[in-house]
Amino acid sequence: MATTQTQVAHIWRRLGLGPAADDVDAGVSVGPQALINDLLSRPAMVSSAGNPNPWGFPAGTDYTAEAAYTGRMIELMAFGPSATGSGVTSPTYNPLQERVAWILQGLVVTGIIDSTYFTDLKDHVNLLRNSVFGTHKQLLLDVSTRPGMLKYLSGYQNTRSHPNQNYAREVMELFSIGRVHPVTGAANYTQGDVQEIARALTGWQYNWGHGTTFFSPSQWDPGVKTYRGQSLGAAKLPDVINALAAHPAWPYFIPKRFYRELVGFDPAPAVLESLAATFGPTGDLKALITAIANQPEFLSDQAIFSKVKQPVELIASAARLLGFPSLATTNFYLSSDLHTTINQHPLYAPNVAGWPRGDQWLGSGSMLAWSALAGRILYIGFNWNGVQNGPICPYIQRLFSEGPAATATSRLLHQAGLDNASATTQAKLIEYAAGGPWNLARAAGLIHLLFLSPEFLAC
After folding, report:
1. DSSP state, residue 388
2. What per-residue confidence (pLDDT) applies to 357?
3. Could you give the residue ranges of the DSSP H alpha helices within 267-363?
4. In sequence order, which ranges of 402-439 are alpha helices (DSSP H)?
């Protein structure tokens, strides 16, 4: 059975984006269950009319603003809404909100493409951040009429005279019930159902002059719609969402997806049944997440390291350990790397199904790209031959100052939440640490080597 240290680190990786240097010791002092309770109880930071941007996202809409926004997204994952560029964890940091918002971004997907713009993605991300502990039913109601989704899946082209089935299909297949029932395997809808749902979703339009959406009665099909053999009457959007929430697959599809995200494998049938009851007809996300985090399987040895971090998660977890203060000042290069080499830009989903799993991302090219990006982060403040010539990441100074090469590896692994690293990984790190003078450059290199280890890549 895993040690308390290993379980604490696992909790931070699954209910957040990984531990900071002192999180493991703090978690051990209270115990795994108390840490789970703490993370589940922290209030989400949401926007309001009086405070529309509590997360400190930068203003602007051009490519430099997009790059800064990308850096801020990852900064929020790592530190919460602290001062931009500080690398200091905010007192209001809610790692679970960051984790769930990221899960939702890969589940209810939009991306910058064609006529879906950066401003649309900002609105979409804000909606997801506000919805993390709400109901999935309300999220679907809200996202269906937002500019990003209306444009991304052609909803604004869905009119009475020219029905467009794009969103009708995806809202069922990917956002709510799935193609087949997760338990019985029965088909959840027919092509006729797609056509009828598309008719019910007509009428929502986009104002290209103002960037807003509106309902146009003249573009809505007022006829009777039939779904799964039953009349929905003269259905509109709310009737569609109600029909989806009443579908037999509704309480299973999203809970199964969240279980895989948080635990790492599919739930046993009895567990899925209990989660379905918790999720309920409204799709209570907070209750679902709480139930999953309290399942025995969540802390099981099978769950630990059962997933691979996605690229964005790698960067956020590295930044969290390092207290990296420069995401804001290097955001243009970060955004470029996410686009062209790491292949996971959080604003550019490859398709409506979201990004591939972490293990599908692994490969020699991606690993070289991650190594290069990690190196640029770690060697800020060093010249070409390893001599410090400017400010460096705070954690490098700490690792160097806390002791000699002989103990650096065990301390680094512990603070990174990787006490359970394999003997091979530990041996390689120890060999590197002792391979030359113990100085700041070697401390940076030791962290760099850790970032390429199988254990750091795992989640």
Report:
1. B
2. 86
3. 269-279, 285-293, 311-322, 331-340, 358-361
4. 405-415, 423-433
CB 349 within 8 Å of CB 112 = no
- Total Cβ atoms within 10 A of residue 62: 9
Q: Whole-angstrom distance between the N-terminal and C-terminal Cα of the chain?
A: 18
Burial class (CB in 10 A: 0-12, 13-18, 19+), 434: middle
How many Å apart are CA 171 and CA 175, to the nearest integer? 5
Contacts with 210 (C-beta within 8 Å, 6 or more apart), sequence order: none
pLDDT, position 329: 62
Residue that is written with structure tokens 């529309």 in the block: 52
CA angle 274, 277, 281 (to 5 degrees): 155
Tally of CB atoms within 10 A around 313: 22
Q: From residue 232, give the alpha-carbon distance in Å to each of 153, 215, 241, 276, 336.
A: 23, 19, 11, 25, 48
- CA-based nearest residue to 26, from 11, 41, 43, 44: 11
How confident is the model at residue 447, as a pLDDT?
98
Q: How far is the C-alpha of 313 from the C-alpha of 125, rounded, in Å?
A: 17
Task: Write down the pLDDT at residue 313.
Answer: 95
The reported pLDDT for the residue numbered 325 is 78
Question: According to the model, what pLDDT value does residue 251 have?
Answer: 98
What is the structure's pLDDT at 328? 58
pTM for this prediction: 0.96
Q: Which helix (H) or strand (E) holds 108?
A: none
Low-confidence ranges of the chain (pLDDT < 50): none
Cα 259 vs. chain centroid, distance in angstroms?
Answer: 14
In contact, 200 and 242? CB cutoff 8 Å: no
State the Cα torsion 182-184-189-191 to the nearest 10°.
Answer: 110
Residue type, 129: R
Check the CA dihedral 81-86-87-88 and report its sign: negative
